[in-house]
Write a structure and sequence with these properties.
By secondary structure, the chain is α/β, with parallel strands linked by helices. It has two domains: about 1-30 and about 155-235, Rossmann fold (3-Layer(aba) Sandwich), CATH 3.40.50.10090; about 35-150, Rossmann fold, CATH 3.40.50.10090. It is about 35% helix and about 20% strand. It has nine helices and eleven strands. A six-stranded mixed beta sheet has the order 3-8-7-4-5-6, sandwiched between helices. The protein has a five-stranded parallel beta sheet with strand order 2-1-9-10-11. Strand 4, helix 2 and strand 5 (about 75) form a beta-alpha-beta unit. The chain is elongated, with a radius of gyration of 19 Å. The two termini are about 10 Å apart.
């Protein structure tokens, strides 16, 4: 199958390798570029736990974390973010089921409001207000914006491939990337070129951002995980 991967470059390279190993022809076109804000100072407090809502949040936090901070428990939004935190040397990491509502529920289950504040390592654009959710439960949450995701355009080669029917499927991992793709497709007049293309979406929230585009099919992973998304492509 001819697949288009839209994730940021670091994640796209590993994913493309996995897909090629399964026999697919893969094109990488990251629609977001990640810029770490290393001049942002992390607040120094006795944190009960660290919260990460993306793999990039985990990496951004690690760029400023000392060994003491890496010993603090980390609650990650999903397995991908948890894996990134572990790879960066955080010692105590637990994963939620893939969205901020699940992370809110996990925090409420394993943490206590009276045992200290929480630090949310975030990007400049949020997918849900985790801070507000947890504050309604009595937690004190401080948000540190540690990275920005800059929008990128579709490469001309991808535009040409979509026009010619040279892409069979597109993988979407975040609502923001799906929204960016939908906007670029409409601007380029490519909406009518998607009739033979399948959208592979990490979650229903991702699929909703593609609303109005006439894909042949929009398939949603059984759970918000990489393995579940890859299972869609294998099915």
């Amino acid at each position: 199958m001819r697949l288009l991967v839209t994730r940021p470059e670091r994640e796209s390279e590993a994913l493309a390798a996995a897909l090629r190993a399964r026999g697919h022809d893969v094109t990488i076109a990251p629609l977001l570029s990640i810029h770490y804000l290393d001049d942002v100072a992390l607040p120094q407090r006795a944190w009960q736990a660290l919260l990460v809502t993306s793999a990039n949040g985990a990496r951004a936090l690690a760029r400023q974390a000392d060994e003491n901070l890496k010993r603090i428990p980390v609650l990650a939004v999903g397995e991908g973010s948890a894996a990134a935190a572990r790879a960066e040397g955080f010692a105590n990491v637990r994963a939620a089921e893939g969205d901020v509502h699940a992370l809110d529920a996990l925090a409420a289950h394993v943490l206590e409001p009276g045992k200290g504040p929480l630090l949310h390592a975030a990007g400049s654009v949020l997918a849900g207000d985790l801070k507000a959710m947890l504050e309604t439960r009595g937690f004190e949450v401080e948000r540190a914006v540690l990275y920005e995701a800059e929008k990128r355009a579709l490469p001309e080669s991808v535009v040409a491939a979509l026009k010619s029917g040279g892409i069979d499927g597109v993988l979407f991992f975040s609502p923001r990337t799906a929204r960016q793709f939908a906007s670029l497709v409409r601007e380029a007049g490519l909406a009518s070129s998607l009739g033979r293309v399948t959208a592979y979406c990490l979650s229903a929230a991702v699929a909703r951002e593609l609303g109005g585009l006439s894909f042949a099919e929009a398939r949603i992973a059984a759970s918000p995980s990489l393995d579940a998304l890859l299972a869609l492509i294998s099915a």
